Amino acid sequence: MVTLAEVARHAGVSASTVSYVISGKRSISATTRDRVERSIQELGYHPNAGARALASSRSNIIALMMPLRTDMYVPVMMEIAIAIATTARGHGYDVLLLTGEEDPAAVRRVAGSGLADAMILMDVELLDARLPLLRETGRPAVLIGLPADTTGLTCVDLDFAATGALCAEHLAELGHREIAVIGEAAAVYERHTGFAERTMDGLRRRARELGLRLLHRPCEGSYASIAGTLARVFDERPGTTGLVVQNENAVDPLLSLLRQQGRAVPEDVSVVAVCPEQVAVQASVPLTSVAIPAQEMGRRAVDLVVERLAGRGLPHVTLLPPELAVRASSGPAPAGG
Length: 337
Fold this sequence. Notes:
Layout: H1 4-11, H2 15-23, H3 30-43, H4 49-56, E1 61-65, H5 74-90, E2 94-98, H6 104-113, E3 118-121, H7 131-137, E4 141-144, E5 155-158, H8 160-173, E6 178-182, H9 186-190, H10 194-210, E7 213-217, H11 223-236, E8 242-245, H12 251-260, E9 270-275, H13 277-282, E10 288-291, H14 294-309, E11 317-320, E12 324-325
Parallel strand pairs: 1-2, 1-3, 3-4, 4-5, 5-11, 6-7, 6-8, 8-9, 9-10
Antiparallel strand pairs: 10-12
Protein name: LacI family transcriptional regulator
InterPro entries: Cro/C1-type_HTH, HTH_LacI, LacI/GalR-like_sensor, Lambda_DNA-bd_dom_sf, Peripla_BP_I
Domain HTH cro/C1-type: 3-32
């Protein structure tokens, strides 16, 4: 491992000069700084995190609070996390991943220890218990998600309310009048998780405006649960001709069950999904869908938190507009549907 002393010898300067270049604590001439930075790059020197913290009062670490729950679709969360880690490295930061069901105690632990310079929070609930303490600490932070009250917070998310409205509009334009939502697991709604609640708000509001009958049924991820949910939908609303799916685990079993029941997609039933593009295009019937922009959300979150660390920008909400990709799973409502 390359040491600071080796960098100093390579650059022809003192070890303290190298330290000042790294910490920024003293003004160094541009010529000397360039020489030191070239030596750091050529030798592949990486300052020890503890030494950086002592030198600059910065750890150059961003804490990512990403609770991994059994009722959440982990691949999307990991895609966001990878985008965060990659983008953070480009800004010179490492990422500390916290995957437990992080509560206010975790925020207090990170803020109080100085372990991380900033935080990114995922799995945001409408009344998230972490937020009062986050506001109190004043630690730079970005939320991937939208709570009910965004005052003083910086947030980035897909506009899930507009996403729900877009799904309703697409089915209405095709002549569908009775639609059902195959939703996330019941626990996701019980926690009032922001993305799920906002999607349903957008769907309900637009459905009322368009005169659609809307049925919402949460669904666990197992095949048996999906079979039971689908049977319940058609028992309660036999005239249902449009399905909106916001549950990635339900996609393949749902299409298989519709096929077994003799319901052709899209001739008998149209299916629109809110899911990653890869899930949509690889389904047995390529799905009309609104994609989850996981990588974009991760990149934006890091860019925003770095801005806050630099003292730039005010708290604000960034909502990414939804885009509907029409594929083979949606078509005109059947006659009499």
